[in-house]
Amino acid sequence: MARIELRDVVKRYGAVEVLRDINLDITDGEFIVLVGPSGCGKSTLLRMIAGLEPITAGDFLIDGARMNDLRPRDRDIAMVFQSYALYPHMDVARNMGFSMEIRKDPTEERKNKVAQAAATLGLSALTDRLPKALSGGQRQRVAMGRAIIRDPRAFLFDEPLSNLDAALRVEMRLEIARLHQKLGATMIYVTHDQVEALTLADRIVVLNGGDIQQVGGPLDLYERPANKFVAQFIGSPTMNVVPVSGTEAGVTIANGKTIALPHLPDTQQAVEMGIRPEHLDVVDPGAGDLNAVADVVEHLGSDTNIYVKVDGVGPLMVRKHGNIPAKSGDRLGLRVRSEKVHIFAPDGTALRRAA
Amino acid sequence: MGHTFDGRIRQVESQPVTAKTNKNVMPGDTRARRSLYLQYLVEPFYYLSPAIILIGAVMMVPLIIGISYSFQSIELLNPFKNGWVGFENYGKLWGDRKFWIALENTFFWTFWSITFQFFLGLGLAMLLNTNFYGKKLFQALVFLPWAVPTFLSALTWAWLFNPVIGPLPHWLAALGILSEPYNILGDPDLAMWGPITANIWFGVPFFAITLLAALQSIPSELYEAAEIDGATPWQTFTKITLPFLAPMIAITVMLRTIWIANFADLIFVMTGGGPANSTQILSTYIFTTAFRKLDFGYASTIAVALLVILLIYAVILLWLRKKLVKI
Amino acid sequence: MSVAARRHPALTIGKYAALAFYLAFALFPLYWLLKIAITPDALIYSEGTRLFPSAVSFDNFRTVVFQTDFLAYFGNSLTVSLATAAITTLIAAAAGYAFSRFDFMGKRIIIALMLITQMFPLLMIIAPIYRIVGQLGLLNSLTSLIIVYTAFNIPFATFLMQSFFDGIPKDLEEAAMMDGCSRFQALRKVVFPLTLPGLGATLGFVFTAAWSELLFALMLISKNDAMTFPVGLLTFVSKFSVDWGQMMAAGVLALIPSCLFFIFIQRYLVQGLTSGAVKG
Asked: In percent, how much of chain C has pLDDT > 90?
């Protein structure tokens, strides 16, 4: 069990700075998800915590002890790799017990622990197989078994589900959530899939271009994104962003309509307004804030996605629960739920009342 | 190998077993270590240093000494003449008729060896890229010459060309190529074809292996797409196979040309450069000068000349490649 | 794939003719070597150019093994080649590992230098090496040959080993390090077992190269009892150039280790141990 702190951590490759001033406190037993587009530095950060990449500057502490100069083996952290990294020449049992074998733990104890972990993960019948004789999901389980057997201070996951098909991914996601509940261990999980992030995390760290954009709980990020990047990165489908001009009382859209935003400060600084597809209501033509023409309509059964064109504003997306009987070419009115609107200053930061 | 360079670290290595039993020990507190960063910088050189030292001592240093020899007179049979002579060796080289003959022979030897090796190798690779019964065994057998030691290839072919115990002169005479079954290795006009034949025999597998690997890396979807688009086999070959092989061909031919120009074993064993220097190439000339005359100064001068020629060749080829290859 | 061969019966016949040509071209010289070696001495001149001998005798082999120095040459060559192969593979494995797994200052320069050693005329250093070896008092010693051959073969063997290491995912070692291995332990317990085919292939290549090297051996060895097989055979040829049967019997013997290693390499190159687990 561990409390993990990152203090002004920097990573440079030569002159290229891939991570800048990373500060993060992770409390004992917390499930943290690092999320961001590819190349944002999330995997690098995870590998620095693991000890697989040296830290250029700053401090990395576990329970107050500085870890920068410890090799991976001395950090007592387990990691699940994207490729699983199972040893091809060892059977499942030996793969799982390898860390104990290396540490010369008693054979009896090792066998018990392997059997126990295999039972937990439903691998008991497969312990004498080689990795190449396993399915993708089974390999994933072995990789997790290898991590839990050590009872480490923290678990790291590097996009562990990205090589699985959609159905297995959901199953393994639940499995990981259950594992966290059961073990109560500190876990750090890297993914580019926001669904994984939102469903698993206690707190999400959004990274972009080597900077932390925002740290917060899943609902925090969804409801109160700190900037335009987070607003558009979190939430599916992506938030609509339209240019506006700010006034004292609210913002004015390109079609001349002003939306009053009494709950937000400094509206005169706003240059863009963000509104999630699910926060636009479909009303009769001419009745709402915007007049739109449906372009493409997707009927998903549980939801309906309507891609619309709005004169002077551009394309927007509307998502409604249930089945809306709209079709391509229909004229619609859209009403903006003003209490759900986000507004952004020229530098992209979200304008909102201090919490 | 990696970590035992310093007593402090060795001490740390011996600890984890005891430290592990007590989970409350903070690793960071008890194990002061050299910075991971420094370790990352130095570590590769533990793995590399034996290779670097050996290559430096046995190849690089002698290479420099060898170049310096070309400006000295070093004749082991005539120790009183030893000393620095400036460019005297190079002047002698310029006026040496044997050198110019050897240079011409080098071109002849290299060009015909590489041409036959390449086309026969390409043919073999294309055959091996198809399916037929017994392919694995066939492949093992046709690649066998590549494993035969070069001196043995040379001797074998020398014997094959010998009319007393070899069939080749008789066959050639029967085909009307030779007027009577005699040993072509003794005929100044034809002698070079002896070592060239041996070289082709020995070198075809190498080209076939390299080109086969390249052929197999061409995605089969491309062939299927071409077939659907209505390409004839010949069009498929010229429009898909060749462009895909081109980069591999270019690099292989270049490296192999240099290798063959340097390759003296076959000629040395089969003809020793004779008769009348008709098979003398630069590398055999270097070797005989060093080995038989023990004239190290002059041998090194020829070697430097060969090196310069190869360098010019490589530069021209790289320049051409840059001009022709757009990507 | 076989677009061309599928169509025409004429093409199929052409293909099999080509296969036959390649097979004959590759094997005929070796067959001839063997044929002369097993032809009884008395028959060599009368049927020297016949395709099949009318009688078979192993006398030549017996003479070569028991009445000449070939057994000693064979032993010398075996010592030199095995030692060269073992030392080279060890050093090249370490260097190839460094190239494959580390990014460090000077890497490009070192790789470039190694490539250069593959290009310049090796004969260029035969004179300096002779003098250095002479000054060290190592002429006519197998040690000098082993050192020289090792250095010659390291660059190629290093690139070969590097390509084998490149084929082993870095994740495996990192996983081992997370599991508590030092880098060296990870190398020994995880990487090494997976790279056995690569080590085997490298051993084979270097052995074959050392076994067939002639010119440096000629230069550095002049004493009969230190001669390697190529030097011994060549000396034998120039001394007794009429004893065809014995020379070819010796040649066949020299072929054996190369062929053994060739079969060995073939077997290992086909084997793909990691493919199953790595592809996911």
From this structure: 24
CA distance, residue C12 to nearest chain A CA (Å): 39
Q: Does residue A250 share a domain with residue A144?
A: no
Taking contacts as CB-CB distances below 8 angstroms, the residues of chain A near B38 are none
* Chain segment C171-191, per-residue pLDDT in tens: 999 999 988 888 888 988 999
Q: What local confidence, expressed as pLDDT, does residue A355 receive?
A: 53
Phi, psi of B296 (to 5 degrees): -70, -30
The letter for the amino acid at C3 is V
Q: Are residues A284 and A186 in the same domain?
A: no
Out of A67, A74, A104, closest to residue B17 by CB? A104
Same domain membership, residue A326 and residue A252: yes
- Examine the fold and report which residue of A228, A247, A274 is the final residue of a domain before the chain moves on: A228
Closest alpha carbon within chain A to C193: A89
If you count residue pairs, one on A and one on B, with CB atoms under 8 Å apart, how many are there?
Answer: 44
Pick the residue from chain C with its C-alpha nearest to B164.
Answer: C48
A150 neighbors A109 (Cβ within 8 angstroms): no
**CA atoms of A342 and A231, how far apart (whole Å):** 9
Low-confidence ranges of chain B (pLDDT < 70): 1-36, 325-327
Q: Looking at CA atoms only, how far is residue B47 from chain A in angstroms?
A: 19
Please report, for the domain that includes residue A65, its CATH number. Answer: 3.40.50.300
- Residues A243, A219 within the same domain: no
Q: Answer yes or no: do A66 and B35 touch at CB < 8 A.
A: no
Task: Give the ipTM of the model, two decimals please.
Answer: 0.84
Whichever domain contains A298, its CATH number is: 2.40.50.140
Binning pLDDT at 50, 70 and 90, where does residue C7 land? Answer: low
Query: Which tens digit of pLDDT belongs to each residue from C134-154?
Result: 888 888 899 999 999 999 999
Candidates B155, B186, B198, B265; CA nearest to C243 is B155
Q: How many structural domains does chain A have?
A: 2
Q: Is C101 on the interface with A (CB under 8 A)?
A: no
Residues 6+ apart with CB under 8 A from B192: B105, B108, B109, B278, B279
What is the model's pTM? 0.81
Q: Where in chain B is the domain with CATH 1.10.3720.10?
A: 91-324
Rounded Cα gap, residues A97 and A94, in angstroms: 5
Same domain, A64 and A180: yes
Return the number of other C-beta atoms located less than 10 Å from residue B276's C-beta.
Answer: 10
Indicate if A69 and A30 belong to the same structural domain. yes
CA angle A291-A296-A299, nearest 5°? 110
Best residue in B21, B26, B40, B41 for a mutation probing chain A (most A CBs within 10 Å):
B26
Indicate the residue of A54, A70, A73 with minimum beta-carbon distance to B40: A54
Tell me, yes or no, whether A129 and A243 share the same domain: no
Most B CBs within 10 A among A71, A102, A110, A151, hence the mutation to make, goes to A71
The residue type at A164:
L
Q: Could you give the 3-state DSSP secondary structure of residue A162?
A: coil
* Domain coverage including residue A158: 4-228
Q: Within this chain, do residues A105 and A125 fall inside the same structural domain, yes or no?
A: yes
At the topology level, CATH places domain B91-324 in MetI-like fold (1.10.3720)
Q: Kindly report the CATH number that applies to the domain delimited by C63-278.
A: 1.10.3720.10
For residue A339, give both structure tokens: 């209490």
Q: List chain A residues with CB under 8 Å of C167.
A: none
Angstrom distance (rounded) from CA A140 to CA A161: 8
Judged by CB atoms closer than 8 Å, whether chains meet at C118 and B255 is answered as: yes
**Residue numbers in A near C274 (CB within 8 A):** 88
pLDDT reported for residue B4:
33
Chain C partners (3+ C-beta pairs within 8 A): A, B
Last residue of some domain: A228, A258, A276? Answer: A228
